[in-house]
Amino acid sequence: MQFDLSEALSKKDDDTRVLDLSAVQNLTVFGRTLEKCDEDYFPAFNKLKEMSAAAIDFEITSLSPQGGGSLYLMLKFTEMIEAVLLSKRDFELAQSYLGLFLKTHADLITTHPKLLASLDALQNCQNEGWENLAEKFMYNLSVVNAVKAM
Predict the structure, then answer these.
(1) Is residue 114 domain-resident?
(2) For 16-145, where are the E strands, in sequence order?
(3) What's the domain count of the chain?
C-alpha cells in the first residue's frame, strides 16, 4: 500500500494548494487495478493470480467499505469472476476466489440488493460452467470406455 498525495494536491492559484479528496482513496494495488477495468477484467485477475494466499485474502477482505474498498469494487469483483467463468479458463481458481469472497463478505452481501442481483447473474454463469465441465467429463469417460473395449 502506498500513500501518495501528489495526485491529490493541485495548484488552484499561485499560492493556494487544494486537496482533492476524491483522489485520496485507501485502495490496494489490486483494488486500483480492478477499479480501472471496464470490459477486460483479466489484468486484475492476473494480478490476483500472482499474489500469495495471504495477499489474496487481504485483497479480497479489502474490497468491502470496512476494509477501505467500496460496494462498487465488490460489484466489480463479481463482474470479474463472471468474466473469467465465461472465458472458460481458470474455472477452479475463480471458484476459490468466489468462495473466499462469499465467506468474507456474506453479511454485507445479504444487506445490499445490487450485490445479491450480481450474484444471481454469477450463479447462472457458474451453472453453465459446471454443465460444460460435466459434458466434457462424460465425453472423456465415453472415449476411455470405448478405448478399453477395443
Answers:
(1) yes
(2) 17-19
(3) 1
